[in-house]
Amino acid sequence: MTAYSRLEAVFRKSAAIGDALGVLQWDMATMMPDGGAEGRAEQMATLKGIAHETVTAPDMADLLAQAEGETLDGWERANLREMRREWVHAAAVPGDLVDALARAESACEMAWREARPAADFKRVLPALSDLLGLVRQVGAIKAEKLGVGIYDALLDQYEPEGRSAEIDAVFDPLEAFLPGFIEEALAAQARRPASVAPSGPFPTGQQKALGLKLMEMAGFDFHHGRLDVSRHPFCGGSPEDTRITTRYNEDDFASAMMGVLHETGHALYEFGLPKGRWRSQPVGRARGMVVHESQSLLMEMQACRSREFMTFAAPLIRDAFGGQGAAWEADNLYRRGIRVERGFIRVEADECTYPAHVIIRYRLEKALIEGRMELADLPGAWNEGYKRLLGITPPDDRLGCLQDIHWYGGSWGYFPTYTLGAMTAAQLFAAAQAADAEVLPAMGKGDFKPLLAWLRANVHGHGSSLSTRDLVTRATGRPLDPAVFEAHLRRRYLD
Amino acid sequence: MTAYSRLEAVFRKSAAIGDALGVLQWDMATMMPDGGAEGRAEQMATLKGIAHETVTAPDMADLLAQAEGETLDGWERANLREMRREWVHAAAVPGDLVDALARAESACEMAWREARPAADFKRVLPALSDLLGLVRQVGAIKAEKLGVGIYDALLDQYEPEGRSAEIDAVFDPLEAFLPGFIEEALAAQARRPASVAPSGPFPTGQQKALGLKLMEMAGFDFHHGRLDVSRHPFCGGSPEDTRITTRYNEDDFASAMMGVLHETGHALYEFGLPKGRWRSQPVGRARGMVVHESQSLLMEMQACRSREFMTFAAPLIRDAFGGQGAAWEADNLYRRGIRVERGFIRVEADECTYPAHVIIRYRLEKALIEGRMELADLPGAWNEGYKRLLGITPPDDRLGCLQDIHWYGGSWGYFPTYTLGAMTAAQLFAAAQAADAEVLPAMGKGDFKPLLAWLRANVHGHGSSLSTRDLVTRATGRPLDPAVFEAHLRRRYLD
Fold first, then answer.
1. Strand order in the sheet with A241-246
2. Is A329 helix (H, G, I), strand (E, B) or coil?
3. Which residues of A are less than 8 Å from B221 in CB distance?
4. Helix %, strand %, coil % for chain B, to 5?
5. Active site at which residues (chains A, B) (predicted)?
6. Catalytic annotation present for B263
7. Which CATH class is domain B162-495?
8. pLDDT-based confidence at B67, cuts 50/70/90?
9. Are A146 and A88 within 8 A, CB to CB?
10. Angle at CA B417, nearest 5°, toward B414 and B419?
């Protein structure tokens, strides 16, 4: 038995445990009665510990080294590269530091849950300072093992081979573009007639029926997935059993409808990953957070907020809720779907202002991780960023630097993936249209097949065999280019 | 660190894995899309393998031996006894025999799924013969380790310390009692006015609402459990997150209603098991299948088919479905709940005839396991048993020895627990009434608290610290006595 095939067995086992964890996580968010929380935490900690032991067994370093010398085909070679990445991230950090980090994350998140409603950054500062110190220690260790800078080492956990130099190369021009563009978009919006909100209430059952209909249309396979309700929407489970969730607001059907389409984009990616032998191997998994987010945003922002799709969907939406009148016309619904507004809260932001929220966070977390900024200066620097990019100043830290859980829960290096995903979505959607002229007209008939076929061949089926950089270059003819995203924004918001 | 405390850590880990498996199992039966089956099988096999490795680690024999010599209190001592039992059942059988058994079970169950609809016992005979051979090998190995006979060694897997000599001591008189009693019960029934079926349909939503109301009344804690739908009803999950299921027949509300009460009995046992430290230890678990079945049957058969409870429940049932007329009167519903009929199918049998179905199976499986009978003679012996005990002869093997999955799936030594559970339920319910005169009158007010308080103190809270024998003797003043069950049947069916 080769070292390589022994490694495949190790990762098959860890994949089975990971899939089991996916079900437990989904159940916790959707089905579990509250009294099950403590036991569930114990179950998940036990399985995570076993998965960690599996991937960091003492013979893994030798097996990986031996396998490098064995004869492997292209996918096996790529699989070995991804195995090593997973091993480095799991094994690089000593156990006592991993434990200290987990405790600091939990303590800081608890402090944040009190500090946020009180808009009191000082209250969370000591816990956040401890946590950031440990995150930087982890980053430094991984940076050495990976041969990259400390920020890139953390980024690599979410976006394999992501590099901040490349992020800067696309965020710098975007940052220069945004303030003026947002100004123009708001002016263009003011020249158009104001959109009108269809009046509710919109019963949950009817919203769900509409969501299921759109999911089916988009190609969601209900033999391999489900739609349920959770407080924070997500796409979980595994490629052959993908579970998406949403939440319903009876005063606004659009949030769940677009949310379902967003998660459907994630699910279609999972469905389209390589099957068979690669299914349970690192190379068969989704590439990383940038490509994953590109798939959800391609569905939500590129395909389903298009005038073509909204024109098709308007009668379905009307029928779903028995709506009548001007508010239910396609043109009005389309304009409601692309409203622009400067706001303080990232998760409520529209397509035009969202990148500004992300760029601000990316600059700040990078400075903090690299030790170029003090945590005590975060609120001020945050507000300055909002003034500069969006022209608004948060009245307090609840609407400012306390709004997102990421940093307080230990996720540093995650934020840029949102906007990289949005830019990648625009570039992939443009390439799909260039490759098949039917892609956009078909959306006007509710036909997602041309789009899905292109995504299957050019994105989903690659799994993790290519880096994000190579995948985008092969699929679109060039690396990520901010001009494509900017052209999309201009076309949609200024024309 | 003592050997004993190291053992507690081992079993805490295996309990966490077992609880995770409980959620995966529940999800598979209630929520999982069909395309998830293969992946789920892989997940569950992986976790079962890890749990097995955990409990059979090479140092376990030494740890168990060392712990015997350490100073332990009563519960620790009982816990050590249960640890050893679990270890013997897990470690006694060599890995290749375990694998061969799993394959034979799977092959035989598949053959049975074809043979049953075709009523063709011969078709499954070769696979069943292979399976029985392996089951007997396993039984022989465990018999030696446990120092008991081969049948008792298999029985011990489901009913710890269950012994067929004691089963014979209660089944022999019951077998003598039943044929004449069934005759008398049918005659008594013929003298009463025939019961009338309330006319449906009974919408699923209304059945569910009624079920939830009755569960709450019985003391089901929805912070620690749920009710869902599955093809085969069960009680699963874990003590702090207990999931029961039912299935709804829109032509007959009583089957789901009584089914929900049955599973609620199982759930109340789980809720009442020792908390804290013992929660994750073998001594804190439910005692075995006999006590578990006694708790479901106590709820369904003893408490909820009583005239007192039916009188209370009739108006609730009427309101749930908007029923009107004589069919909805308490007396009619009570009489429908205690109809007696000789039939071929165990799972459709009533309280009076059910023990006959079980005793026939127990005699046959014991003879087969002990090598006193050939498999080829099973259909004939089966039909003879039905003729003798129930006075009816199955027209074919589909309605005969092919009806139950148990033997074909590898569960040998399980059947007697059903009727031992029914007898134990009668004896516990009688003791509860003797201890607290309010138990039965309270049922007439929908008040389960006196009953539950007695069960908590005398059954649930003991976990596995006592053997079933000792638990019954302490709770009722004597070992299991068929006279108590017979008296219950006479009172309900002949008076």
1. A225-229, A241-246, A235-238
2. coil
3. 35
4. 70, 5, 25
5. 263
6. yes
7. mainly alpha
8. very high
9. yes
10. 130
Report the residue from B16, B42, B221 with minimal CB separation from A43.
B16
**Could you tell me the pLDDT band of residue B95, with boundaries at 50, 70 and 90?**
confident
Secondary-structure percent of chain A, ordered helix, strand, coil, rounded to 5: 70, 5, 25
pLDDT band for position B210 (cuts 50, 70, 90): very high
Domain covering A114-495 in this structure, CATH number: 1.10.1370.30
Put simply, whether the predicted model's pTM sits higher than 0.80 gets the answer: yes
Residues B8, B263, B308, B351: which is the catalytic one?
B263
- The answer to whether B223 contacts A35, with C-beta atoms less than 8 Å apart, is yes
Q: How confident is the model at residue B356 (pLDDT cuts 50, 70, 90)?
A: very high
Of A13, A24, A31, the CB nearest to B46: A13
User: Taking a C-beta distance cutoff of 8 angstroms, is the pair A235, A267 a contact?
Assistant: yes
Task: Tell me which chain A residue has its CA closest to the CA of residue B53.
Answer: A50
Cα radius of gyration (chain A): 23
B41 CB-near residues (< 8 Å, 6+ apart) = none
Instruction: Report the candidate in B102, B106, B135, B108 with the shortest Cα–Cα distance to residue B124.
Output: B108
* pLDDT, tens digit, 9 for 90 and up, residues A34-76: 999 999 999 999 999 999 999 999 999 999 999 999 999 999 9
Shortest CA gap B55–chain A (Å): 14
Neighbouring CB atoms inside 10 A of B64's CB total 18
Structure tokens at B491: 């009172």
Q: Using CA atoms, how far apart are residues B142 and B126, in angstroms rounded to an integer?
A: 25
Gap between the Cα atoms of B253 and B316, Å rounded:
13
Q: Write the burial class of residue B406 (CB in 10 Å: 0-12 exposed, 13-18 middle, 19+ buried).
A: middle
Q: Which residue of A lies nearest to B240 if distances are taken between CA atoms? A: A36
**DSSP assignment string, B3-30:** HHHHHHHHHHHHHHHHHHHHHHHHHHHH
Looking only at Cα atoms, what is the longest distance across chain A?
Answer: 70
What's the mean pLDDT in B28-36?
Answer: 96
B312 within 8 A of B439, measured Cβ to Cβ:
no
B17, B23, B216, B224: best to mutate for the A interface, most A CBs within 10 A: B23
Please provide the size of chain B in residues: 495
| Residue among B27, B5, B238 at smallest CA distance from A39 | B238
Pairwise CB contact (< 8 Å): A223 & B35: yes
- Which of these, B364, B354, B311, lies nearest to B485 by C-alpha position? B354
CB of A119 within 8 A of CB of A396? yes
Every domain of chain A and the residues it spans: 3-91, 114-495
> Which residue numbers in chain A have pLDDT < 70?
none
Neighbour tally for B232: CB within 10 Å = 9
